Structures are given as structure tokens and as C-alpha cells.
Amino acid sequence: MSDDPLPEYPRPQLVRDSHLNLNGRWRYAISDDPPETYDGEIVVPYSPEAPLSGVNRQLLPGQTLWYRRSFDLPADFAGGRVILHFGAVDQTCRVWVNDVEAGGHTGGYLPFSFDVTDALRPSGNTLVVAVQDDTGNGPRGKQRLRRGGIWYTAQSGIWQTVWAECVPEVHVERLTLTPLLDDSCVEVTVHAAGGEAHVEISAGGETVARVTAPAGRPVRVPLPEVRAWSPEDPFLYDVTVSLGTDRVRGYFGMRSFSVGPDADGVPRLLLNGRPYFHAGVLDQGYWPDGLYTPPSDEAMIRDIATMKRLGFTMLRKHIKIEPLRWYHHCDRLGMLVWQDMVNGGEPYRPWVITAPAVLPFVRLDDRRHHRFGRADAAGRTAFETDMRATVEHLRNVVSLAVWVPFNEGWGQFDAARIAAELARLDPTRTVDHASGWHDQGAGDLRSLHVYFRRFRPPRPDGRVLVLSEYGGYSLPAVGHTWGEKEFGYRRYRTVDALGEAFVRLHEEQIIPAIARGLSATVYTQLSDVEDEINGLLTYDRAVLKLPDDLVRSITKRLRLP
């Protein structure tokens, strides 16, 4: 058990010098009522189900998980407003500071905060959090209480960093940084209760622009000799914003994402106005010791850097929202991101979500909500609320290229309308409205999953063709499996056999399809996860199952002609 887990500043695009990290050892209890005594210690921000928490207990629906810790404020917090931040808590929680209720939150995947100034004392403060998690309903991602196959151990409670900061009465609440590459400028919006902010932009340590920005008003800032961001050159500009006595630091990258024809008129994904092939990997974001929570900042970096070393240019973050530091590392290392929204709803009907895997002609109208586990109107409303919040939360991520609202019919509904709403909320990125199947003819991409049949590019329909999941070839690495069960779409027993199959798949089916319109691929997957042993890496990330040079020999050919 670590006394100092994930100590890094959790919000890299809005950095203040005031920072109190509240991760570490808390007390915990599972009890219906506020406990008089606690069951033991838990290491936050690891869920009680995760080994790194030191608890190893499953929170069940109807139970309440209580957290408690004491803390003192740093001396430099005096005289300001204190904001208490939670990166993510799964799923519904209430928070008290010194027995004063600060507020609550429901959702499981998004950050929230409270101004707790008036409840604080100079020292000896107490923080209590009560959490309930009904894993079967609402946003749940790949979690399932009866785990197995492609469904993983359910986790609960606090799973991202808890921290506090001190701000002046009038302060920068958030920044919107929108690169406008064609116009050689960045649009800056300083969100605050009032006042006028001073914005300074630098490149490579040299100041390149200064501007005054009234709070809440977008201001375009011209940039000289713009250097575009790309996976090959992930150049980032630094930005400093001063508002009264408040000062924050952030960054942005100059890039654009769109769709358009190549020289032959074939619809392609465009990066900075030019056709660019997205050679991707499915990334579940699970860890054997931390479940949803990475064991360290270095572990996140290692995953991204390993896939980049192998020649991949994109990660599809699957049904999960990561801590902001993960996106920061994609920005600075140069890794494109496809971001899934978090699926949810009522229990899924197997014939709806699995039949199209072998019967690709099955296509259901997702306006018939009961078929997709979306009969509950409140659940549909909650999804759309979370979708809007997710867009705002990740709007400034430089590397985020594609939004994916629905995967394989899991809780899908009104996908054409949702795609239009996403495009309205964020016109700077493209939308894959129904990844896999139950295509409603909307969005920017025609998105296919192919595991059990040969991949043959379909007839063009005016959208960009992407193979958003494929492969899934499995190989157990002795000494690096999670349990006795094995799940994979095609099983192999030796590295040589797996390597031959990997090369044959790409040479016979994937690479030839690029000239016929294929513009992106997402190989399943980055690492093994529990029973799923179809990762390029083992679950513990200790073994890369295929030789580097073999994988690179393929990825270097996943390019446009």
C-alpha cells in the first residue's frame, strides 16, 4: 500500500501553484448508516475492489461505502476560496466537510467540485464521503458484477485523484482553447465571473502573442509562423492567463480534424487538411492492480509510448474516460485519441448486441428504445447530460480526433440525432455514431467491427470507411495470465503462430483495403484484460507478445498510398 499514490498535478491544462493532494490512506467502512468505527484503511484513489486499495472487497448494489480522512490546509491557502475536487467517483456520492454537507454527484466518470471554504477550520478538518454503486444501471462501461469474457470486474467508489486548491474570489473557472489552423490563430475564452484577463502565449520558451480577453468572450489570437501539431511533431504552445490575482497555466496544439476527399475523390480522415491514416489500438484502460486506476503516471506513459514505438498513431479509449493526465501524455507524445462515451442503460439483449458479429446484415432501428435497453427516458436524458459534460471536460485535449457515442448497440438510442448533437457541440472533430453495427447512416464514418469473417470493404456510401475493431488474436503468456479462463476471437499457442496470423491478416485483408477506401483501423487490443488474453501486451504489461520489428513491419504499411 502506497502512502503517496498518483501525486502529480491532476489537471495539466489549468494549472495553479496552490495544490493539496488528498490521495493516500483514508479510513473506510461498508455500512448502511454513518459508522461509529471503521473497518480499516483504504488507499485512495483505488477502488475497494482493486488490490492497490488494500481492501479487496466488492461493493454490492444497496450497500454504502464510507470514506473518512482528516487534513490540514497549507499556509498559502489562507485568505482565498478553497475548492475541493474529485476526479471521478463511481457512482453516486455525498460529501461532508466537518459535518457540513458540501454536495453530491451521480455519474461515475466525470469530475466534480465544491466550494468548501465556509465549512473549513484552520486545522483538523474532517472529510467524509458516502458512495453507492448500482453497477447494473446507469453508465457502467465494461464493468459487470458477474464478470467474464469481455466484461470485467466491477469497481466502485473514488477512483481518480481527490485534491483541493485555493482561488481568489474572482478566478479563472475554466479555459476554452480552440485552434483555428487555417486562420493561423487560437481562439481563447476565459470563463470567469467577471473581469478582464491577460493572456500570454509562448512557443519553445519564447513569447509569441499577448492579448487582453474580457471574461466569457472568445478572443482570437493571431500566431506567427504556426507550427502544426501531429503525431510526428507533437508541438505544444504554452499559455498563461492572469485574472486579477489569479494565475493559471495551460497549453494547446495547432491542428485540425475533418473529413474530405483524397486526390482520387475517396473520402478520408483529414489531419491539418491532409489525408491521414489512423492506425489504432483498442485501449480498455484496465490494470490488474488498480482496475480503472493506473498504478502510476509512468504506467500510463509506458502504454502510450509502447504503442507509439510499435508504429501505431491512435488509441481508441474504449467505454471509459481517463484521468486528464492520460490525455496530456497523448498530447505531448503525439498519439491520436478516439474517445468513446460511456455506455449504460438497462441489461442488454444478447441478440441485439452480438448477432451482428456473425450476421452483418442485421440492422435495427435504434428509435425502438426497448430493444437496446433504453426504454427508460430518464436514463436516456442522463446519457445526453453526461455526453455534453464529457465534451466540455475534454474539449481542450489536443489529440482527441473522433467522438464515439455508441459501441455495438450497447445502450444505443437515436444515434443519428445524437451524432448531429455531438457535431453541434463540437464541430472541430469527427463523429463515429455507431461503432460496429446497427448503423443508422449518420455521422462522418462508416464504422465496422470484423472478428469472425473475412474483411471485405463494402460499397462506398459517401462516408469515411473505418475498421474500428478487428483482430483480437489471443495468446496466453505463461506466468502472466490473470486466471484459468481464456477468451479470444482466435486462439494461438506459440509466438510464431500468432505472428504468422497477425502478418497474414494484415497482408491479405487490411493493407489491400486501404486503396479501396479504408482510412482507419483499430486492432484489438493494447493489453490482456482479465479473461481476455488478446492483447499485444500481457495484463501486467510485462511481456510484449510479438517482436517489435514484426509489428512495425506491418504498421509502417498502414499508411495512405
Automatic annotation (TrEMBL):
One of its GO terms (molecular function) is hydrolase activity. It comes from the Bacteria. Residues 297-442 form the Glycoside hydrolase family 2 catalytic domain. Signal peptide: none annotated. Pfam families: Glyco_hydro_2, Glyco_hydro_2_C, Glyco_hydro_2_N. Residues 170-255 form the Glycoside hydrolase family 2 immunoglobulin-like beta-sandwich domain. The keyword Transmembrane helix does not apply. The keyword rRNA processing does not apply. PANTHER family: BETA-GALACTOSIDASE, BETA-MANNOSIDASE. Belongs to the glycosyl hydrolase 2 family. This is Glycosyl hydrolase. It comes from Streptosporangium pseudovulgare. The lineage of its organism: Bacteria, Bacillati, Actinomycetota, Actinomycetes, Streptosporangiales.
